[in-house]
Design goal:
The complex is a heterodimer of chains A (140) and B (177). Chain A is mainly beta and 140 residues long. Helix content of chain A is 0%, strand content 64%. In chain A, strands 1, 2, 4, 7, 9 and 10 form a six-stranded antiparallel beta sheet that branches. A four-stranded antiparallel beta sheet of chain A has the order 3-8-5-6, with no helix packed on it. In chain A, strand 5 (57-67) and strand 6 form a beta hairpin. With 177 residues, chain B is mainly beta. Chain B has no helices and 17 strands. Chain B is elongated and about 65 Å long. The model of chain B is unreliable at 1-11 (pLDDT under 50). The chains are: A mainly beta (140), B mainly beta (177). Chains A and B meet through strand 1, strand 4, strand 7 and strand 10 of A and strand 12 and strand 13 of B.
Chain lengths: 140, 177
């Protein structure tokens, strides 16, 4: 029986990740654990980073949930074209129903072809300059 | 065999063979720790505490992280020693090139930074949300949400009571993981 809110997976990272990959080869940010699903339960996926930084100039960043290189759902997107870098807290979520069996998901990000350089997903251990960045799956 | 047998209130009752001990508090449910034993606990997502402000504008005057401007003073909340997720939500208006960093404190101890905005160029308004998972010790804790800015000009956090054309409250919320 599904109990909404039950945590199925939670993984945090405590080191900053530079996201520079294009859509065909996104940059991994958080690797989830292998979790077995019943094929019936709808889940909520969440991703959080205290700071995402887009470099100065034109930059288009997307963050998504992937399984074996295939996107499951996009979680977050940001675009700007400013003369200064932009830092802010990012959070994204989505809902889907995993098929029955074991699945291992990855949160990954990519830039659009017109974007130059790397976006930053900042993370530290608790008490550091940043909060941990994390990914979480719960029963919806 | 009855579904539920035995007494409560610390005497221990059995649910389908699982003996639940302890005394339940409001909102708690039986949680099995094995095939034969369990205790009273809160379900995932249970709201342990919620605190908000509806003041029109809180000017973030502090430039020192350790002594940031108080945004929300939480009430004392009682935790059970298990992990919780703290969520922050607010409408933020930083000044140009001077960001706002939001943190969770307990007295003078910084638990963590939880949200941040450095706009870099102009000074627009943003919806700022932060989330942090941590494990308070069992017992009562009183947390404070503070903010400081890095730059020459103050930013602000805008809040209201909602309603037609109204801004929403700025809030912090603690839920059981």
């Amino acid at each position: 029986m599904s109990t909404p809110g039950t945590e199925l997976d939670y993984v945090e990272i405590t080191a900053t990740v530079n996201v520079s990959g294009l859509e065909a080869a996104p940059t991994a940010i958080v690797d989830g654990n292998a979790v077995t699903y019943d094929g019936l339960t709808r889940v909520k996926v969440e991703w959080y980073a205290q700071v995402v930084e887009l470099p100065a100039g034109y930059y288009d960043l997307n963050i998504g949930l992937y399984e074996a290189g295939t996107v499951v759902t996009l979680l977050f997107g940001a675009f700007h074209n400013e003369t200064h870098a932009l830092d802010w807290t990012a959070y994204g979520s989505g809902f889907f129903t995993p098929t029955a069996g074991s699945h291992t998901y990855t949160v990954a990000g990519f830039r659009s072809p017109g974007s130059s350089g790397s976006a930053i997903v900042a993370a530290s251990a608790q008490g550091g300059d940043y909060a941990p960045s994390w990914y979480r799956l719960t029963e919806a | 065999m009855p579904f539920i047998s035995g007494g409560g209130g610390g005497a221990g009752g059995a649910i389908s063979g699982v003996t639940v001990t302890g005394t339940a508090s409001a909102g708690q449910v039986p949680v099995a720790s094995s095939s034969s034993a369990g205790q009273w606990g809160f379900t995932s997502g249970y709201e342990i505490g919620y605190d908000q402000i509806t003041a029109a504008s809180t000017s973030i005057t502090s430039t020192t992280e350790a002594t940031g401007t108080t945004v929300i003073t939480c009430a004392a909340h009682t935790f059970d020693g298990a992990a919780v997720m703290v969520e922050f939500f607010g409408l933020v208006e930083p000044s140009s090139t001077s960001g706002i960093i939001v943190s969770l404190f307990e007295s003078s101890t910084q638990i963590s930074r939880i949200a941040e905005l450095l706009p870099g160029a102009i000074s627009p308004g943003y919806t700022l949300t932060g989330r942090f998972r941590f494990t308070p010790t069992a017992g009562s804790h009183t947390y404070t949400v503070t903010a400081f800015h890095q730059g020459a000009s103050n930013g602000s956090i805008v809040a209201g009571s909602g309603g037609t054309g109204g801004d929403p409250p700025c809030f912090v919320r603690f839920t059981k993981v």
